[in-house]
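pipeline stage [seq->struct] | target=Long-chain acyl-CoA synthetase | organism=Streptomyces pharetrae CZA14 | residues=533
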Amino acid sequence: MFLQRIGNQGIRLGTLFERAAARHPANIVVLDHDLDIAPGLGRRATVAEIADLIDDFAARLWAAGVRPAQRVVVHKSDGFDITLLACAIVRVGAVPVLLSPKLDGATVAELVRRTDRPFLLTDRDKLDTELPAEVFTLAERVLLASGSHPEATALADLAGSPRVPAVTMPPEQPTLVTHTSGTTGIPKLAVHTGHTLQARYRPQAAVTAPLLRGRETIAMHVSFVHSRLITALAISLFRGYPIVVLADSDPKRAADLFAQLRPGILEAHPNSFMEWEELADDPRAPLANVKLFSSTFDAIHPRTVRRLLGASRRKGALFGQLYGQSEIGPAVVRSFSRSGRGLCTDGRCVGRPFPGMTDIRVVSRDGNPPSPDNPGYIEVRSDGRIVTYLGEQQRYDQQVNDGWWRMGDVGFRTKLGCVHLLDREVDLIEGFGSTLAVEDALFTRLPQLAEVVIIPGPDGRAVPVVSTKDDIPLDPDTWRRAVAGLPPMAEPVQWRKEELPQTATTKIKRLELARRLADAPGAPAPVAVEEVV
Protein backbone atom coordinates (compact mmCIF):
# COMPACT_ATOMS: atom_id res chain seq x y z
CA MET A 1 0.00 0.00 0.00
CA PHE A 2 3.01 2.34 0.30
CA LEU A 3 2.73 3.26 -3.39
CA GLN A 4 -0.82 4.48 -2.74
CA ARG A 5 0.41 6.82 0.00
CA ILE A 6 3.41 8.61 -1.51
CA GLY A 7 2.40 12.21 -2.25
CA ASN A 8 -1.31 11.41 -1.92
CA GLN A 9 -2.98 14.83 -1.76
CA GLY A 10 -6.46 13.54 -2.48
CA ILE A 11 -8.34 13.33 -5.75
CA ARG A 12 -9.80 16.90 -5.48
CA LEU A 13 -13.02 16.08 -7.23
CA GLY A 14 -14.30 19.66 -7.16
CA THR A 15 -11.55 20.91 -9.48
CA LEU A 16 -11.10 17.71 -11.52
CA PHE A 17 -12.42 19.12 -14.80
CA GLU A 18 -10.84 22.53 -14.19
CA ARG A 19 -7.36 21.03 -13.77
CA ALA A 20 -7.88 18.78 -16.79
CA ALA A 21 -9.00 21.79 -18.84
CA ALA A 22 -5.78 23.60 -17.94
CA ARG A 23 -3.85 20.75 -19.58
CA HIS A 24 -6.20 19.88 -22.45
CA PRO A 25 -8.79 22.68 -22.84
CA ALA A 26 -9.95 21.56 -26.30
CA ASN A 27 -10.43 17.91 -25.33
CA ILE A 28 -14.03 16.85 -25.86
CA VAL A 29 -16.76 14.91 -24.09
CA VAL A 30 -19.47 13.32 -26.24
CA LEU A 31 -22.79 12.22 -24.71
CA ASP A 32 -25.57 9.93 -25.91
CA HIS A 33 -28.12 12.04 -24.02
CA ASP A 34 -28.96 15.63 -23.11
CA LEU A 35 -28.10 17.00 -19.68
CA ASP A 36 -31.13 17.89 -17.58
CA ILE A 37 -29.25 20.77 -15.96
CA ALA A 38 -28.01 22.18 -19.30
CA PRO A 39 -30.03 20.91 -22.27
CA GLY A 40 -28.71 23.75 -24.40
CA LEU A 41 -25.14 22.52 -24.05
CA GLY A 42 -25.83 19.75 -26.55
CA ARG A 43 -24.16 16.37 -26.75
CA ARG A 44 -20.64 17.51 -27.56
CA ALA A 45 -18.68 19.87 -25.32
CA THR A 46 -15.09 20.69 -24.51
CA VAL A 47 -13.64 19.86 -21.13
CA ALA A 48 -13.26 23.61 -20.57
CA GLU A 49 -16.99 24.13 -21.20
CA ILE A 50 -17.87 21.39 -18.73
CA ALA A 51 -15.50 22.86 -16.14
CA ASP A 52 -17.32 26.18 -16.52
CA LEU A 53 -20.70 24.42 -16.15
CA ILE A 54 -19.51 22.85 -12.88
CA ASP A 55 -18.33 26.26 -11.64
CA ASP A 56 -21.71 27.76 -12.58
CA PHE A 57 -23.68 25.14 -10.63
CA ALA A 58 -21.32 25.38 -7.67
CA ALA A 59 -22.28 29.07 -7.52
CA ARG A 60 -25.99 28.17 -7.66
CA LEU A 61 -25.57 25.61 -4.86
CA TRP A 62 -23.78 28.23 -2.75
CA ALA A 63 -26.62 30.67 -3.39
CA ALA A 64 -29.06 27.95 -2.27
CA GLY A 65 -27.26 27.76 1.07
CA VAL A 66 -24.99 24.74 0.60
CA ARG A 67 -21.85 25.16 2.70
CA PRO A 68 -18.63 23.19 3.41
CA ALA A 69 -19.01 19.81 5.17
CA GLN A 70 -22.78 19.71 4.57
CA ARG A 71 -24.23 16.69 2.79
CA VAL A 72 -26.20 16.89 -0.42
CA VAL A 73 -28.12 13.79 -1.49
CA VAL A 74 -28.35 13.58 -5.28
CA HIS A 75 -31.23 11.42 -6.53
CA LYS A 76 -32.42 12.46 -9.96
CA SER A 77 -33.25 11.00 -13.34
CA ASP A 78 -30.34 9.17 -14.91
CA GLY A 79 -27.68 11.20 -16.70
CA PHE A 80 -24.07 12.37 -16.65
CA ASP A 81 -25.16 15.52 -14.84
CA ILE A 82 -25.32 13.39 -11.68
CA THR A 83 -21.53 13.23 -11.84
CA LEU A 84 -21.18 16.90 -12.77
CA LEU A 85 -23.42 17.94 -9.88
CA ALA A 86 -21.26 15.84 -7.55
CA CYS A 87 -18.22 17.80 -8.76
CA ALA A 88 -20.08 21.08 -8.18
CA ILE A 89 -21.06 20.02 -4.65
CA VAL A 90 -17.47 19.15 -3.77
CA ARG A 91 -16.32 22.44 -5.31
CA VAL A 92 -18.13 24.33 -2.52
CA GLY A 93 -16.68 21.96 0.10
CA ALA A 94 -19.85 19.93 0.64
CA VAL A 95 -20.21 16.15 0.41
CA PRO A 96 -22.36 14.58 -2.35
CA VAL A 97 -24.33 11.45 -1.43
CA LEU A 98 -25.13 9.75 -4.73
CA LEU A 99 -28.22 7.55 -4.89
CA SER A 100 -29.07 5.51 -7.96
CA PRO A 101 -32.07 6.61 -10.03
CA LYS A 102 -33.14 2.95 -9.90
CA LEU A 103 -33.74 2.97 -6.13
CA ASP A 104 -37.37 2.98 -5.08
CA GLY A 105 -38.80 5.93 -3.20
CA ALA A 106 -39.06 4.19 0.18
CA THR A 107 -35.38 3.18 0.04
CA VAL A 108 -34.36 6.71 -0.93
CA ALA A 109 -36.35 8.13 1.97
CA GLU A 110 -34.61 5.75 4.39
CA LEU A 111 -31.17 6.70 3.07
CA VAL A 112 -32.01 10.40 3.29
CA ARG A 113 -33.01 9.76 6.91
CA ARG A 114 -29.65 8.10 7.61
CA THR A 115 -27.86 11.07 6.08
CA ASP A 116 -29.19 13.32 8.89
CA ARG A 117 -31.07 16.21 7.31
CA PRO A 118 -29.09 16.76 4.13
CA PHE A 119 -29.99 18.94 1.20
CA LEU A 120 -31.85 16.78 -1.34
CA LEU A 121 -31.11 17.48 -4.99
CA THR A 122 -33.71 15.80 -7.20
CA ASP A 123 -36.10 16.71 -10.02
CA ARG A 124 -39.80 17.24 -10.56
CA ASP A 125 -40.29 13.83 -12.14
CA LYS A 126 -38.88 12.01 -9.10
CA LEU A 127 -41.03 14.07 -6.74
CA ASP A 128 -44.20 13.46 -8.77
CA THR A 129 -43.81 9.76 -9.47
CA GLU A 130 -41.49 8.06 -6.97
CA LEU A 131 -40.45 9.94 -3.85
CA PRO A 132 -42.76 9.98 -0.81
CA ALA A 133 -43.86 13.34 0.58
CA GLU A 134 -41.86 12.73 3.76
CA VAL A 135 -38.60 13.64 1.97
CA PHE A 136 -39.55 17.30 2.49
CA THR A 137 -39.41 16.79 6.27
CA LEU A 138 -36.33 14.57 6.16
CA ALA A 139 -34.26 17.06 4.14
CA GLU A 140 -32.98 20.44 5.20
CA ARG A 141 -34.03 21.79 1.82
CA VAL A 142 -35.10 20.26 -1.49
CA LEU A 143 -33.36 21.49 -4.63
CA LEU A 144 -34.40 20.72 -8.21
CA ALA A 145 -32.04 19.92 -11.07
CA SER A 146 -34.96 20.36 -13.48
CA GLY A 147 -38.61 21.32 -13.29
CA SER A 148 -40.35 23.26 -10.55
CA HIS A 149 -42.25 22.50 -7.36
CA PRO A 150 -43.86 24.85 -4.84
CA GLU A 151 -41.93 23.33 -1.92
CA ALA A 152 -38.54 23.13 -3.65
CA THR A 153 -35.90 25.51 -4.98
CA ALA A 154 -35.13 25.16 -8.68
CA LEU A 155 -31.46 25.59 -9.51
CA ALA A 156 -32.57 27.12 -12.81
CA ASP A 157 -33.92 30.08 -10.82
CA LEU A 158 -30.43 30.69 -9.41
CA ALA A 159 -28.76 31.10 -12.81
CA GLY A 160 -26.32 34.00 -12.82
CA SER A 161 -25.38 33.64 -9.15
CA PRO A 162 -21.95 35.13 -8.41
CA ARG A 163 -19.13 32.64 -8.87
CA VAL A 164 -17.37 31.54 -5.70
CA PRO A 165 -13.78 30.31 -5.19
CA ALA A 166 -13.31 26.56 -5.01
CA VAL A 167 -13.14 25.23 -1.46
CA THR A 168 -10.45 22.59 -0.89
CA MET A 169 -11.22 20.37 2.07
CA PRO A 170 -8.50 18.32 3.83
CA PRO A 171 -7.91 15.07 1.92
CA GLU A 172 -8.60 12.93 4.98
CA GLN A 173 -12.14 14.36 5.23
CA PRO A 174 -15.19 12.79 3.53
CA THR A 175 -15.52 13.93 -0.09
CA LEU A 176 -18.06 11.50 -1.55
CA VAL A 177 -20.68 9.03 -0.33
CA THR A 178 -21.88 6.25 -2.62
CA HIS A 179 -24.07 3.28 -1.83
CA THR A 180 -23.44 -0.43 -2.01
CA SER A 181 -25.25 -2.62 -4.51
CA GLY A 182 -28.10 -3.52 -2.20
CA THR A 183 -28.05 -7.15 -3.32
CA THR A 184 -28.61 -8.20 0.30
CA GLY A 185 -31.12 -5.57 1.43
CA ILE A 186 -31.14 -1.79 2.02
CA PRO A 187 -27.91 -0.38 0.52
CA LYS A 188 -25.19 0.80 2.87
CA LEU A 189 -23.74 4.30 2.49
CA ALA A 190 -20.00 4.10 1.80
CA VAL A 191 -17.93 7.12 2.84
CA HIS A 192 -14.92 7.97 0.65
CA THR A 193 -12.24 10.57 1.36
CA GLY A 194 -9.93 12.38 -1.02
CA HIS A 195 -7.16 10.06 0.13
CA THR A 196 -9.07 6.83 -0.46
CA LEU A 197 -10.26 7.85 -3.94
CA GLN A 198 -6.74 8.86 -4.96
CA ALA A 199 -5.49 5.51 -3.63
CA ARG A 200 -7.99 3.79 -5.96
CA TYR A 201 -6.93 5.94 -8.89
CA ARG A 202 -3.25 4.97 -8.67
CA PRO A 203 -3.35 1.22 -9.36
CA GLN A 204 -5.73 1.74 -12.27
CA ALA A 205 -3.59 4.51 -13.74
CA ALA A 206 -0.42 2.46 -13.25
CA VAL A 207 -1.73 -0.69 -14.92
CA THR A 208 -3.06 1.14 -18.01
CA ALA A 209 -0.06 3.42 -18.58
CA PRO A 210 2.13 0.84 -20.37
CA LEU A 211 -0.82 -0.49 -22.40
CA LEU A 212 -1.96 2.82 -23.89
CA ARG A 213 0.91 4.81 -25.31
CA GLY A 214 -1.00 7.06 -27.70
CA ARG A 215 -4.16 9.15 -27.54
CA GLU A 216 -7.28 6.97 -27.54
CA THR A 217 -10.98 7.74 -27.47
CA ILE A 218 -12.56 6.12 -24.42
CA ALA A 219 -16.23 5.17 -24.26
CA MET A 220 -17.75 4.63 -20.82
CA HIS A 221 -20.98 3.08 -19.68
CA VAL A 222 -20.64 3.07 -15.89
CA SER A 223 -23.23 3.90 -13.23
CA PHE A 224 -23.18 7.65 -12.59
CA VAL A 225 -23.45 7.04 -8.85
CA HIS A 226 -20.46 4.67 -8.61
CA SER A 227 -16.98 5.66 -7.45
CA ARG A 228 -15.49 3.73 -10.38
CA LEU A 229 -16.65 6.46 -12.77
CA ILE A 230 -14.69 9.07 -10.80
CA THR A 231 -11.38 7.27 -11.13
CA ALA A 232 -12.00 6.32 -14.77
CA LEU A 233 -12.74 9.96 -15.59
CA ALA A 234 -9.62 11.17 -13.78
CA ILE A 235 -7.36 8.85 -15.78
CA SER A 236 -8.96 9.85 -19.09
CA LEU A 237 -9.15 13.59 -18.43
CA PHE A 238 -5.54 14.01 -17.36
CA ARG A 239 -4.28 12.04 -20.36
CA GLY A 240 -6.33 14.14 -22.75
CA TYR A 241 -8.42 11.23 -24.04
CA PRO A 242 -11.65 12.20 -25.83
CA ILE A 243 -14.47 10.75 -23.71
CA VAL A 244 -17.77 9.24 -24.83
CA VAL A 245 -20.31 8.86 -22.00
CA LEU A 246 -23.27 6.53 -22.42
CA ALA A 247 -26.37 6.51 -20.26
CA ASP A 248 -28.02 3.84 -22.42
CA SER A 249 -26.49 0.40 -22.94
CA ASP A 250 -28.91 -0.58 -25.72
CA PRO A 251 -26.74 -2.52 -28.21
CA LYS A 252 -28.23 -0.86 -31.29
CA ARG A 253 -27.61 2.66 -29.98
CA ALA A 254 -24.16 1.71 -28.75
CA ALA A 255 -23.29 0.19 -32.13
CA ASP A 256 -24.35 3.36 -33.95
CA LEU A 257 -22.19 5.50 -31.67
CA PHE A 258 -19.15 3.22 -31.75
CA ALA A 259 -19.33 2.84 -35.52
CA GLN A 260 -19.13 6.61 -35.81
CA LEU A 261 -16.57 7.43 -33.10
CA ARG A 262 -14.38 4.27 -33.18
CA PRO A 263 -13.34 4.14 -29.49
CA GLY A 264 -9.97 2.64 -28.60
CA ILE A 265 -11.02 1.88 -25.01
CA LEU A 266 -14.34 0.57 -23.69
CA GLU A 267 -15.17 0.76 -19.98
CA ALA A 268 -18.42 -0.87 -18.87
CA HIS A 269 -20.18 -3.19 -16.46
CA PRO A 270 -19.89 -6.94 -17.14
CA ASN A 271 -23.60 -7.16 -17.97
CA SER A 272 -23.27 -4.31 -20.48
CA PHE A 273 -20.47 -6.17 -22.22
CA MET A 274 -22.73 -9.22 -22.36
CA GLU A 275 -25.37 -7.12 -24.12
CA TRP A 276 -22.72 -5.85 -26.55
CA GLU A 277 -21.68 -9.33 -27.67
CA GLU A 278 -23.97 -8.90 -30.67
CA LEU A 279 -21.84 -5.95 -31.83
CA ALA A 280 -19.26 -8.55 -32.91
CA ASP A 281 -21.60 -9.46 -35.79
CA ASP A 282 -22.33 -5.89 -36.90
CA PRO A 283 -21.03 -5.39 -40.49
CA ARG A 284 -19.86 -1.87 -39.57
CA ALA A 285 -17.36 -3.43 -37.14
CA PRO A 286 -18.04 -0.93 -34.30
CA LEU A 287 -15.51 -2.70 -32.03
CA ALA A 288 -12.74 -2.99 -34.59
CA ASN A 289 -10.61 -0.17 -33.13
CA VAL A 290 -10.83 -1.23 -29.48
CA LYS A 291 -7.39 -1.76 -27.96
CA LEU A 292 -8.58 -2.30 -24.39
CA PHE A 293 -11.87 -3.57 -22.99
CA SER A 294 -11.99 -2.69 -19.29
CA SER A 295 -14.41 -4.19 -16.79
CA THR A 296 -14.68 -4.04 -13.04
CA PHE A 297 -17.31 -4.88 -10.37
CA ASP A 298 -17.58 -8.62 -11.14
CA ALA A 299 -15.77 -11.43 -12.89
CA ILE A 300 -16.84 -11.65 -16.50
CA HIS A 301 -17.98 -14.70 -18.44
CA PRO A 302 -15.40 -16.28 -20.79
CA ARG A 303 -17.88 -16.33 -23.69
CA THR A 304 -18.20 -12.54 -23.52
CA VAL A 305 -14.44 -12.00 -23.43
CA ARG A 306 -13.86 -14.21 -26.47
CA ARG A 307 -16.65 -12.59 -28.48
CA LEU A 308 -15.49 -9.04 -27.84
CA LEU A 309 -11.79 -9.67 -28.34
CA GLY A 310 -12.61 -11.47 -31.57
CA ALA A 311 -14.39 -8.34 -32.82
CA SER A 312 -11.31 -6.11 -32.37
CA ARG A 313 -8.85 -5.72 -35.22
CA ARG A 314 -6.21 -3.98 -33.11
CA LYS A 315 -2.91 -5.78 -32.69
CA GLY A 316 -2.45 -6.92 -29.11
CA ALA A 317 -6.03 -6.13 -28.06
CA LEU A 318 -6.67 -6.92 -24.38
CA PHE A 319 -9.56 -7.44 -22.04
CA GLY A 320 -8.68 -6.07 -18.60
CA GLN A 321 -10.62 -7.29 -15.60
CA LEU A 322 -10.49 -5.59 -12.22
CA TYR A 323 -11.97 -7.45 -9.26
CA GLY A 324 -12.98 -5.19 -6.42
CA GLN A 325 -15.87 -3.79 -4.44
CA SER A 326 -17.55 -0.47 -3.73
CA GLU A 327 -15.97 -0.43 -0.28
CA ILE A 328 -12.38 -1.26 -1.25
CA GLY A 329 -11.88 -0.27 -4.88
CA PRO A 330 -9.89 -2.45 -7.29
CA ALA A 331 -8.10 -5.29 -5.51
CA VAL A 332 -6.73 -7.61 -8.18
CA VAL A 333 -6.26 -7.41 -11.92
CA ARG A 334 -6.06 -9.82 -14.83
CA SER A 335 -5.83 -9.36 -18.59
CA PHE A 336 -6.93 -11.63 -21.41
CA SER A 337 -5.68 -11.70 -25.00
CA ARG A 338 -6.93 -13.45 -28.12
CA SER A 339 -4.40 -16.24 -27.96
CA GLY A 340 -1.84 -17.95 -25.78
CA ARG A 341 -1.99 -18.27 -22.02
CA GLY A 342 -4.00 -15.05 -21.75
CA LEU A 343 -6.99 -16.59 -23.52
CA CYS A 344 -9.97 -16.51 -21.17
CA THR A 345 -10.89 -20.09 -20.38
CA ASP A 346 -11.53 -19.82 -16.64
CA GLY A 347 -13.91 -17.06 -15.66
CA ARG A 348 -13.36 -17.77 -11.97
CA CYS A 349 -9.69 -16.69 -12.12
CA VAL A 350 -9.82 -12.96 -11.35
CA GLY A 351 -6.10 -12.22 -11.11
CA ARG A 352 -3.42 -11.00 -8.71
CA PRO A 353 -3.02 -7.95 -6.46
CA PHE A 354 -1.37 -4.71 -7.60
CA PRO A 355 2.27 -4.86 -6.36
CA GLY A 356 2.91 -2.33 -3.62
CA MET A 357 -0.70 -1.16 -3.65
CA THR A 358 -3.10 -3.94 -2.69
CA ASP A 359 -2.85 -7.31 -0.99
CA ILE A 360 -5.25 -10.23 -0.73
CA ARG A 361 -5.64 -13.38 1.33
CA VAL A 362 -8.12 -16.24 1.62
CA VAL A 363 -9.09 -17.29 5.14
CA SER A 364 -10.45 -20.72 6.04
CA ARG A 365 -14.14 -21.01 6.91
CA ASP A 366 -13.81 -24.27 8.88
CA GLY A 367 -10.18 -24.70 9.88
CA ASN A 368 -9.27 -26.60 6.71
CA PRO A 369 -7.13 -25.01 3.99
CA PRO A 370 -9.14 -23.13 1.34
CA SER A 371 -9.42 -25.07 -1.91
CA PRO A 372 -11.71 -25.41 -4.92
CA ASP A 373 -13.88 -27.82 -2.92
CA ASN A 374 -13.67 -25.85 0.33
CA PRO A 375 -13.54 -22.14 -0.55
CA GLY A 376 -12.46 -19.63 2.07
CA TYR A 377 -13.31 -16.00 2.80
CA ILE A 378 -11.60 -13.50 0.48
CA GLU A 379 -10.07 -10.53 2.34
CA VAL A 380 -8.30 -7.47 0.91
CA ARG A 381 -5.98 -4.79 2.24
CA SER A 382 -5.85 -1.43 0.41
CA ASP A 383 -5.65 2.27 1.19
CA GLY A 384 -8.63 2.65 -1.13
CA ARG A 385 -10.93 1.26 1.56
CA ILE A 386 -13.80 3.48 2.64
CA VAL A 387 -13.58 4.94 6.14
CA THR A 388 -17.04 3.97 7.36
CA TYR A 389 -20.64 3.15 6.54
CA LEU A 390 -22.56 6.34 7.24
CA GLY A 391 -24.58 5.80 10.40
CA GLU A 392 -23.50 2.13 10.64
CA GLN A 393 -20.03 2.14 12.17
CA GLN A 394 -20.57 -1.18 13.96
CA ARG A 395 -21.55 -2.85 10.70
CA TYR A 396 -18.38 -1.47 9.10
CA ASP A 397 -16.18 -2.65 11.96
CA GLN A 398 -17.53 -6.18 11.60
CA GLN A 399 -15.95 -6.43 8.16
CA VAL A 400 -12.48 -5.26 9.21
CA ASN A 401 -10.00 -7.65 10.79
CA ASP A 402 -6.59 -6.12 11.63
CA GLY A 403 -6.73 -3.98 8.50
CA TRP A 404 -8.12 -6.74 6.24
CA TRP A 405 -11.51 -6.15 4.61
CA ARG A 406 -13.91 -9.09 4.27
CA MET A 407 -15.21 -8.97 0.69
CA GLY A 408 -18.27 -11.17 1.21
CA ASP A 409 -16.99 -13.58 -1.44
CA VAL A 410 -15.51 -17.06 -1.15
CA GLY A 411 -12.73 -18.61 -3.21
CA PHE A 412 -9.15 -19.81 -3.07
CA ARG A 413 -5.64 -18.94 -4.30
CA THR A 414 -3.52 -21.09 -6.55
CA LYS A 415 0.14 -21.92 -5.83
CA LEU A 416 1.08 -19.12 -8.21
CA GLY A 417 -1.03 -16.62 -6.25
CA CYS A 418 -3.97 -16.22 -8.60
CA VAL A 419 -7.27 -15.53 -6.85
CA HIS A 420 -10.25 -17.65 -7.87
CA LEU A 421 -13.69 -16.26 -7.01
CA LEU A 422 -16.28 -19.03 -6.62
CA ASP A 423 -19.36 -17.46 -5.01
CA ARG A 424 -20.78 -14.75 -2.79
CA GLU A 425 -20.97 -15.93 0.83
CA VAL A 426 -24.74 -15.42 0.92
CA ASP A 427 -25.24 -17.32 -2.35
CA LEU A 428 -23.22 -20.39 -1.44
CA ILE A 429 -25.15 -23.64 -1.94
CA GLU A 430 -23.36 -26.23 0.17
CA GLY A 431 -22.44 -29.36 -1.75
CA PHE A 432 -23.18 -27.81 -5.14
CA GLY A 433 -19.80 -26.31 -5.97
CA SER A 434 -19.39 -22.88 -7.55
CA THR A 435 -22.67 -21.51 -8.92
CA LEU A 436 -20.68 -18.90 -10.83
CA ALA A 437 -18.55 -21.57 -12.52
CA VAL A 438 -21.67 -23.46 -13.58
CA GLU A 439 -23.14 -20.22 -14.94
CA ASP A 440 -19.93 -19.69 -16.95
CA ALA A 441 -20.27 -23.19 -18.39
CA LEU A 442 -23.89 -22.64 -19.36
CA PHE A 443 -23.10 -19.34 -21.08
CA THR A 444 -20.42 -21.10 -23.10
CA ARG A 445 -22.65 -24.03 -24.05
CA LEU A 446 -25.80 -22.01 -24.79
CA PRO A 447 -25.10 -18.96 -26.99
CA GLN A 448 -28.80 -18.05 -26.88
CA LEU A 449 -28.62 -17.22 -23.16
CA ALA A 450 -28.84 -13.54 -22.23
CA GLU A 451 -28.65 -14.27 -18.49
CA VAL A 452 -28.49 -17.24 -16.16
CA VAL A 453 -28.52 -17.05 -12.37
CA ILE A 454 -28.39 -20.10 -10.13
CA ILE A 455 -30.09 -19.59 -6.79
CA PRO A 456 -31.33 -21.86 -4.00
CA GLY A 457 -34.97 -22.79 -4.46
CA PRO A 458 -37.57 -23.09 -1.71
CA ASP A 459 -36.56 -26.72 -1.13
CA GLY A 460 -32.82 -25.92 -1.08
CA ARG A 461 -32.13 -27.29 -4.57
CA ALA A 462 -30.17 -25.19 -7.04
CA VAL A 463 -32.58 -23.50 -9.46
CA PRO A 464 -31.32 -21.94 -12.70
CA VAL A 465 -33.25 -18.80 -13.67
CA VAL A 466 -32.58 -18.06 -17.33
CA SER A 467 -33.31 -15.36 -19.88
CA THR A 468 -32.80 -15.81 -23.59
CA LYS A 469 -32.09 -13.40 -26.40
CA ASP A 470 -35.38 -12.06 -27.80
CA ASP A 471 -37.18 -14.17 -25.14
CA ILE A 472 -37.19 -17.22 -27.40
CA PRO A 473 -38.46 -20.24 -25.43
CA LEU A 474 -35.68 -22.52 -24.26
CA ASP A 475 -35.66 -25.95 -25.86
CA PRO A 476 -35.73 -28.61 -23.09
CA ASP A 477 -33.61 -31.08 -25.07
CA THR A 478 -30.97 -28.43 -25.71
CA TRP A 479 -30.97 -27.60 -22.01
CA ARG A 480 -30.54 -31.23 -20.99
CA ARG A 481 -27.53 -31.58 -23.29
CA ALA A 482 -26.03 -28.36 -21.90
CA VAL A 483 -26.25 -29.43 -18.25
CA ALA A 484 -24.70 -32.85 -18.87
CA GLY A 485 -21.77 -33.29 -16.49
CA LEU A 486 -22.75 -30.30 -14.33
CA PRO A 487 -23.99 -30.56 -10.73
CA PRO A 488 -27.66 -31.60 -10.42
CA MET A 489 -30.15 -28.73 -10.70
CA ALA A 490 -33.88 -28.23 -10.78
CA GLU A 491 -35.61 -27.56 -14.08
CA PRO A 492 -34.87 -24.07 -15.42
CA VAL A 493 -37.24 -21.18 -14.80
CA GLN A 494 -37.34 -18.75 -17.71
CA TRP A 495 -38.04 -15.05 -17.13
CA ARG A 496 -37.62 -11.99 -19.28
CA LYS A 497 -34.33 -10.28 -18.57
CA GLU A 498 -35.89 -6.89 -17.85
CA GLU A 499 -37.95 -8.50 -15.06
CA LEU A 500 -34.91 -9.72 -13.16
CA PRO A 501 -34.19 -7.42 -10.19
CA GLN A 502 -31.00 -5.43 -10.79
CA THR A 503 -28.68 -3.12 -8.88
CA ALA A 504 -27.36 0.26 -10.08
CA THR A 505 -24.44 -1.56 -11.71
CA THR A 506 -26.77 -4.08 -13.43
CA LYS A 507 -25.90 -6.98 -11.13
CA ILE A 508 -28.77 -9.35 -10.45
CA LYS A 509 -30.14 -9.15 -6.92
CA ARG A 510 -29.91 -12.84 -6.19
CA LEU A 511 -31.56 -12.81 -2.77
CA GLU A 512 -34.50 -10.82 -4.06
CA LEU A 513 -34.75 -13.16 -7.05
CA ALA A 514 -34.82 -16.13 -4.68
CA ARG A 515 -37.58 -14.47 -2.66
CA ARG A 516 -39.60 -13.87 -5.81
CA LEU A 517 -39.14 -17.46 -6.84
CA ALA A 518 -40.41 -18.63 -3.46
CA ASP A 519 -43.35 -16.23 -3.52
CA ALA A 520 -45.20 -16.96 -6.74
CA PRO A 521 -47.86 -14.19 -6.39
CA GLY A 522 -45.11 -11.56 -6.15
CA ALA A 523 -43.00 -12.97 -8.94
CA PRO A 524 -42.91 -11.62 -12.49
CA ALA A 525 -44.83 -13.73 -14.97
CA PRO A 526 -42.45 -16.38 -16.29
CA VAL A 527 -42.00 -17.07 -19.97
CA ALA A 528 -43.19 -20.60 -20.69
CA VAL A 529 -40.46 -23.11 -21.48
CA GLU A 530 -41.90 -24.91 -24.48
CA GLU A 531 -40.94 -27.73 -26.74
CA VAL A 532 -39.39 -26.41 -29.93
CA VAL A 533 -40.20 -28.42 -33.01
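stage status: PASS
auto-comment: The CA atoms of residues 121 and 143 lie 5 Å apart. The two ends are 59 Å apart (CA to CA).
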